[in-house]
């Protein structure tokens, strides 16, 4: 299955994505603050672009495009030192920008890069 039509994605964003994404981010960040639920929090962060606009990761669309990810060890060290706090700040700035007409394009760009800011996960492969 390819990407959904632009009209469907735009309607989703206007009806659900703009308000559900900040909630998802803050729930994910709270889960990331725990050791036991950290994997669930990271998975939720990686779903942010999908929740925002129903954007499918390229890895689901193109076989083999998931290659090129940094090693799990590098991503884990980055997350512990930088990703956990920077992703929370990044996502909440994006949420504030998303409620303004002028800031909306920047917010969209920021939300789509949130998995990378959190754990160096390349959403687009």
Give the SSE map.
Elements (H helix, E strand, L loop, with lengths): L5 H27 L5 H9 L1 H6 L4 H4 L10 H27 L5 H9 L1 H6 L6
Helix pairs in contact: 1-2, 1-5, 5-6
At a glance:
This protein is an all-alpha fold and 125 residues long. It contains seven helices and no strands.
* Beta-strand content estimate: under 5%
Shape: globular
Number of domains: 1
Q: What structural category arises from helix and sheet content? A: mainly alpha
Largest sheet composition: none
Number of strands: 0
Spatial gap, N to C terminus? 17 Å
Low-confidence runs: none
Oligomeric state, counting identical vs distinct chains = single chain
What is the alpha-carbon Rg in Å?
14 Å
Rounded mean pLDDT score: 84
How much helicity do the residues have?
Answer: over 70%
Helix segment tally: 7
The helix/strand order is HHHHHHH
């Amino acid at each position: 299955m390819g990407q959904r039509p632009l009209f469907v994605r735009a309607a989703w964003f206007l009806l659900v994505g703009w308000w559900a994404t900040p909630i998802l981010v803050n729930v994910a960040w709270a889960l990331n603050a725990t050791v036991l639920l950290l994997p669930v929090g990271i998975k939720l962060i990686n779903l942010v672009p999908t929740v925002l606009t129903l954007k499918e990761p390229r890895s689901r669309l193109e076989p083999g495009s998931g290659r090129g990810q940094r090693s799990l060890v590098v991503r884990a060290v980055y997350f512990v030192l930088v990703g956990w706090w920077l992703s929370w700040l990044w996502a909440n700035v994006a949420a504030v920008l998303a409620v303004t007409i002028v800031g909306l394009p920047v917010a969209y760009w920021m939300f789509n890069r949130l998995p990378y800011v959190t754990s160096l996960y390349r959403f687009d492969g």
